[in-house]
Amino acid sequence: MYGHIHIILKDLVMGVAGAEAWASILKEAGLTNEGDEGRALDTVVQSDELTFSLVGATCSVLGLELDKALYTFGRHFVTFALRSGNASFLKSQGATIHAFLANINNLHAHLERDHPNARFPFIESKYDPDQDTAELTYLSVRAGLKPLVTGVIEEIGIRLYGLNVFFEEVPVPEDLAEAGIAGHAASWRITWRPRPGGPEPLEQLPVGAPQLPRMSFPALHSVFVDLMRIIRSGNFLGACQCQPEGTTVQTVDGEVEAAENSDEELSMSKSDSIRKASEVQNSNGMPLEHILMRATRADKVAAAWCDSQLPKCREFWQDSAGRAEDYDLSQDARRVDVFVSHSWSPPENWKIVMGEDLRYADVKSTTLAVMAKDIALSSNQLNTWGEVTFWVDKACIPQDDLMLKESCISLIEKFIHRAQRVCVLFTWSYLERLWCVFEWACVLTDKDPNNIWLMNEMFVTDQSFPLYLECIRHFSLKRTKCFLESDRAILTAKIDECYTSAEDFEQLVRATAIALMARSMAYRAGRSRRLHQVFYEPWLALATELGFTELAAALGSCKPSEWRAAAVCGAPLSKEEGVALPTLLSRQRSLLSVQAGAYHDYINAWFDMTVTPHLIRMRDLVKKSH
Fold it and tell me: Given the DSSP bridges, would you call strands 330-332 and 163-170 parallel, antiparallel or unpaired?
């Protein structure tokens, strides 16, 4: 196990009991020699015996029985996550406490990318708007973790929403009764009351105290899973007085460090646009797209939530105003992995729907990191995600040369053709933006639907989902907005050039958007029946409503829960987990360790074979031949 567990233990003890208690823990654990503490807190692989010893000493000195230890560590998990750089990520899970609870399954689906062998619990929340309460059902292959759940949620309420959260345990659903008796399932009626003064701020670290290491939420989650496994197993009992062994120099599997490359390899000089202008003037008949095609690495414009690169990415995505240094983020390229289509402006009701504290720029940065990880995961090389290449307008179009800028804009269709796939950062206002629809018109003529990806994992919540249905249901070219009304003629000309009519194009957009949204939602739909009903089935209904009968039939053949069960890892349950009741395992196969890549492959293969051919036939009927 990694030394991060020991850092978390010390942070907990110092916060609740102080330095004297920590000194007693070190003594009881047998860490009395000079340098022992420093070696134990090093973020490298540590011996299991040392970790058991420190956990046992912590519970002994603080007087924590098993349930109290789980509850205490659950609360501290939230505090430590906020301190270690994950505040924005946690806030992105919901603008209200009930939205956060409803989004926990989506959060676990997100974590599966980084931990494909993990066994995440199933948590379903039903909100009662009349009573302003929620009923939460919890189900896990691991027994006895109820105090952990209540500790985490109580601290989330205090720190993020300024609420005191109260749990009243109620009977579990009838089909989970046996699992509840065995400690694998629980249900609560949850209420909350505002705290005076709002969210409780984090305590300031003492002057001179070392800064906590920045850890991605997936990496931090993994460390806490290890910690909970130790506490629940009781293996730490009697494990004190263990001397630390030599350490192995190996960094934690958290954020990927961007490879150090020379300026000559990855960065062009500030005069790069001048060089490009000269190349265009002396092109000697070479197609302009050969000269002006550029690509930027994912780790230049995308970052995980706690990545030290996120502030730079945030600055890049903050607005569309380009600078010469933005062009330096890209380099000459013949082809690119991903063409990124997006709107610079967030939806007008962004703060109402997503919350005051969630930055649009942060969601765009982290969503592109997810896209890059998906591509890297498809070749089983997750740690190379930073090397995935993007075409992003602000980085790949010279902003300080008007002539080159206009030339690049006129070549958008050529740049799309040179991309292997297209990523659309798809908000519920995307189809209202004229230039976004222009890019969509270009994309649909060049790319088959299986190479178009709507990346909206962090955009789609219980609150925003109905807005997506409405934006697609009512899509119209006349409703698109643009800064200069004269730009509308450019879109009209493109539609006239490529499609049989504006009405046919609008129908193609609606059908394609429904299908792509359905594929995107299928990934989360496999985790529970509720997620399938809430996020997937409405697309079948909308397809039927708009007259896309064949498309609705194709979407109806999707079986995410079955495919998720088929993607369960072959690793057997531990002896303790093996006591999980048959009802539990047969009802919730998704609780088992799932290979995220294999699960996604099932969905992608279904889409390629069943949905894509239908959309291609529909496109070919309305696309003009050239």
Answer: unpaired
